[in-house]
Amino acid sequence: MDCLLDFFDIIVEEVIDMLIDTHCHLSKEDYDNIDEVIDNNKKALVNKIVVSGCSKESIKEVMVLKDKYDMVYVTLGFHPEYADIITVNDLNYLRNLLKEKKVVGIGEIGLDYHYTKENKDKQLWLFEEQLKIAYDYNLPVVIHSRDATMDTINILKKYKVRGIIHCFSGSLETANIYIGMGFLLGIGGVVTFKNSKLKDVVKNISLNNIVLETDSPYLTPEPFRGKVNSSKYLVYIAKFIADLKNISVEEIEKITSNNASCLFDFNK
Ligand code: NI
C-alpha cells in the first residue's frame, strides 16, 4: 500500500474520485478480509466495482456483498466453464434474481475454447440462452471470449444486446468489429504487461469505446504482476492508458466512468 500512496502523490493534483472497476470477482476463497479490500478500494479512488457472480456459489456470495457494501454492484450469469453442469432450472434461478436491486447486468457469459472445445455445443447453448435472457430483461452483458472470437462475434450478431467484451485482448481489426457492433472493450492489467500487443490496439481506438476493469483476483497490472489483484490497482491501469494516449488520468477517469455509467444502471 505504501508504494500505492507514493504513486497517488504524483497524480494527486488531478481530480480523480470516480474510478469504476467494471469487472472483478470478490470471493472469500481469494480474500481473507473483504472489509479490508473494500476499504483499500476507497483509498485507491475507486468508488464503484461491478462484481461478477458467474457460478452457482459465487452468485449467492455476490448477492450478499451487494447489500453489504455501497460500492458493490453485480452482474450475474454462468461462465462457459460451467457449461457441462448448468441446467434449465439454474437459468430459471438466474432469471429470478435479475430484478433485484444493484443487479446491473448478465455476466460473465460467453465461450472458452482454450482448454476444451469438446463441449462446444453445450457452451453455445448456455451462451445463447443467457443472451436471450439479457434481451428479455434489457440488461447489458459482460462477455468472456477466449480462443473463440469468430463464434462469439457470429452469435452476438444474432442478438440485440449491448455490453462489454471483458478482458479484450484481440487485434485492432477484432476491436473494430466489436466497436462497430456497439460493444465497449474492457481493458485491464494485460495492457500493462511488457510484451502485450494490446498497447497498440488501445492507442488506436477511441476512449469512448473503453471501460476499465481489473478482473481481480486475476491479471494483476504491472508493477504488481504476480500478486493477488484487487480493484485498488485500477488507477495503475488508468495511468498506463493515460500515458499511452498522452492525456491526463483525469480524462481517462471521466470518459471511462461515463461509459460505464451509461451502460450500467447504477441507480437500480
Ligand atoms: Ni472475470
CATH architecture: Alpha-Beta Barrel
Q: Choose one word for the global shape.
A: globular
Q: Name the helicity range.
A: 40-55%
Give the names of the bound compounds: nickel (II) ion
The largest sheet is:
8 strands, parallel
Q: What's the overall average pLDDT, rounded?
A: 93
Topology:
Elements: H1 2-11, E1 19-24, H2 34-43, E2 46-53, H3 56-68, E3 72-76, H4 88-97, E4 103-112, H5 120-137, E5 141-146, H6 149-158, E6 163-165, H7 172-180, E7 184-187, H8 198-203, E8 210-212, H9 234-245, H10 249-263
Parallel strand pairs: 1-2, 2-3, 3-4, 4-5, 5-6, 6-7, 7-8
Task: Write structural notes for this entry.
This protein has a single domain, classed as Alpha-Beta Barrel (TIM Barrel). It is built from ten helices and eight strands. It has helices spanning 2-11, 34-43, 56-68, 88-97, 120-137, 149-158, 172-180, 198-203, 234-245, 249-263, and strands at 19-24, 46-53, 72-76, 103-112, 141-146, 163-165, 184-187, 210-212. The protein has an eight-stranded parallel β-sheet with strand order 1-2-3-4-5-6-7-8. Strand 3 (72-76), helix 4 and strand 4 form a beta-alpha-beta unit. Helix 9 packs across helix 10 (249-263). It is globular, with a radius of gyration of 17 Å. The chain starts with a helix and ends in a 5-residue tail after the last helix. 46% of the residues are buried. The structure holds nickel (II) ion. Residues 23, 25, 52, 108, 215 line the site of nickel (II) ion. Nickel (II) ion binds at residues 23, 25, 52, 108, 215.
